[in-house]
Amino acid sequence: MPGWALRFPVRIRNVAPMHPDLEKLIEAGKINDALAERLDQVAPGQFILHNSWGAGKVVSWDLPAKKVTIDFESRDGQVMDLQFALQKLSPLEADDFRAKKVEEIEHLRELATSDPVGLVVFMLESHGGSMTVDAMEKQVSGAIVPEEKFKKWWEGAKRALRESKRVIVPARRTESLNLREGDLTPAEALLADFADARDLKAMCKALEAISSDISLFKKDAEPLKPVIDQVDEAAKKGTRLQLGPAIELLSIRDEVIGALKELELAADALRLSNVLLAEEGRLGDEIGGLSTARQRAVFEVFPEAFEDRWVAMITGIFDQVGTRGVAEIAKLIHEKEKIADLEEYIRAALARRDLGPDALIWVARERKGMAANVFGPEVGAAILNLLETDHLADGPRTTTRLQSLLSDDKKLLADIVNTMGATEARNFGRRLMECPVFSDLDRKSLMARIIKARPETGELVSGDTKKKVENLVVSWESLERKQAELDDLIRNRIPQNTKDIAIARSYGDLRENFEYKSAKDMQKVLMRRKGELEREVDLARGSDFKGADPSAVNIGTVVSMTRASDGAKVTYSVLGAWDSDPEKNLVSYLSETGAALLGAKPGDSVEFRNHDTDLMESWTVDEIKAYNP
Questions:
Q1: What three-state secondary structure class fits 55?
Q2: CA distances from 334 to 276, 292, 406 (A)
Q3: Residue 445: how many CB atoms within 10 A of its CB?
Q4: pLDDT < 70 positions in the chain
Q5: b or e along 265-299 (b: 16 or more beta carbons within 10 Å of the residue's beta carbon)?
Q6: Distance from chain centroid for Cα 374
Q7: pLDDT by residue (tens digit) across 612-621?
């Protein structure tokens, strides 16, 4: 026994007689006092804590065999190696909340019903006075309060906790519940919390609590006047470096003042409208971090701050304020009967292909509501474009929720292709099938929805289409670029990533190792891209496009056309799969424009989308000639 590598943490415990088995070993000279004290922490009758299995009680041990048997919350009769137990278990006092879960669970269940405040206070006392709401739920839900009833129970417990003022209840689940010290009235406790706040975020939290319980100050608002002055001073100092919290603080202050007629702003006080006007260049990201209710309150100040420019200003940050902010802006604009301005902004952004994921999610969800007038083919193209761009970019993904929406909303793809013509629907389906974001299984599932809505796209998954895909015509220059990218991946980026993984692994605990997770995520991106490039290069057939038949538009032809609406002239060169260059009027035969032109002859009328205006246009083919590189 003396040779065991014992590393059990020593804690100050209530003095209690040592287990008789250990006293006998000490008397026989087989172990010393220090080792006996450590062993006593896992003696029968003691309470312990395991990181994964929770609390437990030692029921028996076999010292000669170095075994210990423990009844855990989730499993009874767990036999553990004694040395392993000493290394992995932490002692618990018998009056700890977690120990009571093991031995007196029925009492805790009764307490949850009769005194939820007392239950939460007891739990916090056993956890050092602070724990997150998520951690509290793990302790209570299922074991003490039935899982299906927990949400309702917690709503009632929160109200009771706030009324009691014994616990500071956070506004967000990720923040901590904290025991309050001292014997104060509810109003005094709220003021004390504000006085203890040391930064703008803490002041926002404390002032939000005051606003929530503003009725406590209805009879006497005088104690709040110094608070209003402190808010003004803190916001003036913090606006430059902490704009978001400063905006939030001023918004809550205005809410408090609006609820009590005895309070008013001083003439020289900082106005929220003035802050918005002064900082108009950096409002989007700052407001995006606020809660939904607070965002709405700030947006409602825009007309006062920007007057005639308010619609332009608020649509200007439409795609910067997160999913919640996007919805709140749309609601406000709709209520103010300015929805046409928002539609104009969205159409222009879709035409530029720069509408972000949060805005696209809103358009998709509101396609039969506020966004009905802007929902069309360009929305589908924008979604795929954004998914592909994000997939190929370095860094964390920003389109995960957009991709999930495309999969989860069973009718979205059908609604998208039903706004398209036959050629557009085929091109959209082809692009989705080639999109590297989706797994083969997801791609087939999504394509099935398109085919169900538009049966003519079924040819895309037929043998004929497969044959066309296998004969991918590309220019020699574009093929060399693809091969160079593949070579760089194989020779440089993948080997460097392998080194990065090895270095990150050396940092220790992989569960909390951000560098390791980041390097492994990048490995997935690189290997996926390698597979895509290998498939593309394998399918590609290089060409210089000489000798194309100019009797009709083919790959390697130059087509001149006249626009039916105004007689404007344009000349396009229809080239390989990877040769699009709008500035040089080069189009890929797989693009929407190229696919519409293929097979057309002089005198034929063709239709395709003008990507500057996002409108379908009709053109007459005037002349076709062979491409001369």
A1: strand
A2: 21, 17, 26
A3: 13
A4: 1-16, 182-183, 393-395, 461-471, 507-514, 614
A5: eeeebbebbebbbeebeebbebbbbbeeebbbbbb
A6: 26
A7: 776 788 999 9
Q: How many residues does the chain have?
A: 629
Question: Domains plus CATH for the chain?
Answer: 20-94 (2.30.30.140), 104-181 (1.10.10), 226-468 (no CATH), 471-543 (1.10.287.180), 557-626 (3.10.50.30)
What distance in Å separates the CA atoms of residue 106 and residue 254, rounded to the nearest whole number? 47
Q: What share of the chain is helix, strand, coil (3-state, %, to 5)?
A: 55, 15, 30
The CA–CA distances, whole Å, from 218 to 204, 252, 265 equal 21, 17, 18
Contact 86, 78 (CB under 8 A): no
Cβ atoms of residues 120 and 177 within 8 Å: yes
Give pLDDT, residue 14: 47
Report the alpha-carbon angle 394-525-451, nearest 5.
110
Q: Are the C-beta atoms of 557 and 563 separated by less than 8 Å? A: no
3-state SS assignment for residue 210: helix
Query: H-helix or E-strand containing 618?
Result: strand 615-626
Within 10 A of 600 (CB to CB), how many other CB atoms are there?
A: 21
This prediction has a pTM of 0.53
Q: Which of 444, 386, 380 is nearest to 416 (CA)?
A: 380
DSSP string, 248-280: HHHHHHHHHHHH-TT----TTSPPHHHHHHHTG
| Structure-token pair, residue 355 | 């509408």
Backbone angles phi, psi at 539, to 5 degrees: -80, -20
Structure tokens of 266? Answer: 């001083």
Quickly tell me which residue has 């209690």 as its tokens: 16
Which pairing describes strands 557-563 and 615-626: parallel, antiparallel, or unpaired?
antiparallel
